[in-house]
Specification:
This is VOC family protein. Residues 13-148 form the VOC domain. This protein has eight helices and 17 strands. It is of the alpha+beta class. The chain folds into two domains: 3-156, 2,3-Dihydroxybiphenyl 1,2-Dioxygenase, domain 1 (Roll); 167-279, Roll (2,3-Dihydroxybiphenyl 1,2-Dioxygenase, domain 1), CATH 3.10.180. The strands form two sheets. Strands 1, 2, 3, 4, 5, 6, 7, 8 and 9 form a nine-stranded mixed β-sheet that branches. Strand 2 (39-44) and strand 3 (49-55) form a beta hairpin.
Amino acid sequence: MCPDGQALGMRPVIDHVPFAASDLDAIVERFESAGFAPTYGGEHPDAGTEMAALVLPDGSYLELVAPTREDPAWWGEFFDYADPIGGPSDWCVETGSVHAECQRVIDHDVEVHGPSYGSRERPDGTLVEWDNAFLGPPDEHVLPFVVSDRTPREFRVPDSDLYGSPVSGIAWVVLATDDLDTTVERFERLYRFPSPEYDYDDEFGELARFPGQDVVVCEPSNGRVAERVDEFGPCPAAVLLTANIDDARHQHPLTDGREWFGRRVRWVDGLDGYLGLAER
């Protein structure tokens, strides 16, 4: 995605969603028990974390990430909370130029942290390099952080092992907030999102979905999702993957049938309600 496209209000493309954990081996084991096969990707030496990736056929991925030191540069509150999974700690969109996107959002009075250089060495010795920046105050994780690659993207995101599987990509990142209207207006203003559709879920509360976008905003009134907002402030609460649910149930343990915006939704058992599937 190019920065000019973002300025024109085109669809932000989800690059990946970090899933925080207290221990990388523990979260990888949980995902493997749920029928997925994450691949170890190496350490982030500057951030004090390590990761494994679950790459999806659409080129996006879930980044399973855990600390390697006591003072990691990012998501420390999620690592401390994790037992062993802390859920999605942020979400990331790809941009042609981090510097240009930072300037664009600064012009919309958005606080910016970066640009910063990032790197990791893959187990095969390949050095992966990129630039990124975090948007918004440090105590909230509603706006995405942005990334652009210095090395070829395929260094950072290898081919998916899930081609031909019932799961095809990220349907929605679900962002929990204590003020739905303000958050909706923020996305409409910053990304020129269309007016949302609304729905309701007993656990996630009021739901707002922007047509043609990969984002659902929710305002829970009680329960674990509301407690998550109390703990972290506005932040991602779950990720829903696009899937053929009838086929997926033969490969992944699915529970808790419901419907959002006319699409069947099922949660993946064993992942604490942080990962689900939405019907294609």
